[in-house]
Design goal:
The protein has a seven-stranded antiparallel sheet, with no helix packed on it. A hairpin with a 2-residue loop joins strand 6 and strand 7. Helix content is 46%, strand content 16%. With 355 residues, the protein is an alpha+beta fold. The protein contains 14 helices and eleven strands. 31% of the residues are buried. The chain has three domains: 4-87, Roll (PH-domain like); 91-127; 129-345, no CATH class.
């Protein structure tokens, strides 16, 4: 077929008048726009551009006149359609590859980037200068203001406990946060916070020692910085970059370490308890409490959980108990009471205000 006549309407770009008529093509490089009023207008095919957005989306405009619009209302023959500029359905390179191939390529690239984000922090985290990490931790503690509980007796008891679990490593600083939540968190730069809610649930100082030993294990293995880098990378990868990520205590508390990191911290805790001659039975009791609180967990949950299951951790600490061995208590009754009463006896401490 050579030549065609297709119904259309157009705006000439000079006036706001809508012209209706036909577009005549004789196989050459020009289109003749013939209006019902008898007026003709010649337009070079090479001068046409496809309008993908804006007024009359899907129309044709002219490079020489952006106000021009041409819309075919009749069926355009294949020969003429092949000469007209095409629009982008998904994007230039996607249209060239095809949607299935482009989707497969995107999935492959995403998988590689995700693998990098998840694995790179393991070797990058320990290489972050500790002075940088310490400044981050100090800033977080500073943001808490007067929300950490202190009394001379509780500070002395906590220092004694830390010295037993982390001797010769004075960088570790353990504070009591005035928050009724059963949790503890390791912060950058050797900072550890134990929430008062956890302390109140602990039945003896041995339970508290195992939990603090676990958090110190995160500090020693540089898990905190690894988790921060991983969370930051995931935020960027998923397009949800948050400038506050890693800058708040609760942001750190909400981050998950890998199950392997949790196991490493548990191993560190058991080693330090054994070295200090503190019974791991108390920590086993704590994990039994967590198991009872969480209820029965299906087997498949262990594959997606960020932490090992409480029963696994309880068994590991119970297996570490030496039979018929006379362990010494982590703290005296008076020292443990001083820690438990720290937030009550500190008259200047402030409460966390979430609203």
């Amino acid at each position: 077929m050579t030549g065609a006549e297709v119904a259309a309407f157009w705006y000439d770009g000079q006036t706001a008048r809508r012209h209706a008529g036909v577009v005549q093509w004789r196989g050459g490089d020009d289109l003749i726009l013939r209006g019902a009023d008898g007026g003709d207008m010649a337009v070079a095919i090479d001068d046409l551009t496809y309008v993908e957005r804006g007024v009359l989306d899907g129309a044709y405009s002219r490079r020489a006149d952006d106000g021009f619009r041409l819309v075919f209302t009749g069926a355009v023959p294949e020969e003429l359609a092949a000469r007209l500029p095409g629009g982008q359905k998904f994007g230039k390179w996607i249209d060239r590859l095809g949607l299935p191939k482009a989707a497969a390529l995107f999935a492959g690239i995403s998988a590689v980037l995700l693998a990098i984000v998840l694995t790179a922090p393991t070797w990058l985290g320990p290489r972050v200068p500790q002075s940088w990490e310490r400044r981050i931790g100090d800033a977080m503690i500073g943001d808490l203001g007067n929300r950490l509980c202190h009394t001379p007796e509780s500070d002395a008891a906590m220092a004694k406990l830390v010295q037993q679990l982390d001797p010769g490593r004075p960088i570790t600083r353990v504070g009591i946060a005035n928050l009724d939540m059963v949790n503890a968190v390791a912060l950058p730069g050797g900072q550890v916070l134990v929430f008062d809610g956890l302390i109140q649930e602990a039945e003896n100082p041995d339970e508290l020692a195992g939990v603090i030993g676990h958090e110190i294990g995160h500090v020693r293995e540089r898990h905190v910085m690894q988790a921060m880098l991983r969370q930051f990378g995931l935020s960027v990868l998923l397009g949800g970059l948050n400038s506050d990520i890693g800058t708040g205590v609760f942001g750190i508390a909400a981050m998950s370490y890998s199950r392997e990191a949790e196991r490493e911290a548990d191993i560190y805790s058991r080693e330090q308890l054994a070295r200090s001659d503190i019974s791991p039975a108390g920590t086993a009791d704590f994990f039994e409490y967590l198991k009872d609180e969480s209820g029965e967990t299906p087997d498949w949950a262990s594959w997606i959980a960020s932490h090992p299951m409480p029963e696994e951790r309880e068994d590991a600490f119970r297996d570490a108990v030496k039979k018929n061995h006379a362990y010494k208590p982590a703290l005296t009754g008076a020292e443990f009471a001083a820690i438990r009463d720290a937030c009550t006896n500190d008259k200047d401490v402030e409460e966390f205000d979430f609203f």
